[in-house]
Amino acid sequence: xxxxxxxxxxxxxxxxxNWKGLTFCRPSKxxxxxHIDALFGESGKNVIDxxxxxxxxxxxxxxxxxxxxxxxxxxxxxxxxxxxxxKNATYTAFREVGRVIxxxxxxxxxxxxxxxxxxxxxxxxxxxxxxxxxxLGFGNRGVIADNDPAEQEKTMKFNALLTNAVIFHNALxxxxxxxxxxxxxxxxxxxxxxxxxxxxxxxxxxxxxxxTHELGIQPEAYETTLDVDFTPLxxxxxxxxxxxxxx
Length: 247
Fold this sequence. Notes:
Blueprint lengths: L1 H6 L42 H19 L5 H9 L6 H23 L1 H24 L12 H35 L6 H5 L36 H5 L12
């Protein structure tokens, strides 16, 4: 996954737990490091096979281009590469490139505290969204029982649509309450609003009555302005600029 992400042109930055159990790879048998050599294991071991990567580089790029152009799905590709992986030179080359990229990312992750905070924050947001989406998709306990890929896709997209609609509803309610507090003379700090999540569930009755006769009613225009300056929050971490290019 690290290799394919790299060849597709973006950084894979997962939240890395239990990194002490992961293998750091050396660029050569002679490579040794004064302060962090213990991370790479026994001297002369865990060395990248650059000759294999060079011999398979054309195939690696062909695979990456096929995925990018939609000629083959990444899931189908991984299944094919895993088939007889020990004898599959392309799979092995992918693994070698992945070891290189993962080692670089591990070193970045360990040496850059702001990066760790950004990765953790971004991962928390994704996990919170997924939990909220699963909470809303309570029908059949969230299990997709249909074997038809088209119906499975519909289920996922409808659930995502419902999730975003409820998030939008929550965001409007939060903004309206903030406006009311401002009108009453309260101070609404951007730091306080930053800690309020739109994934609120206490006020939602999943098992209530669902009315569809109001779907065609045009809603009133909602207020889009909020007299709160969020600029200080954005300026606290200038290194975060461009982080959206990573995943």
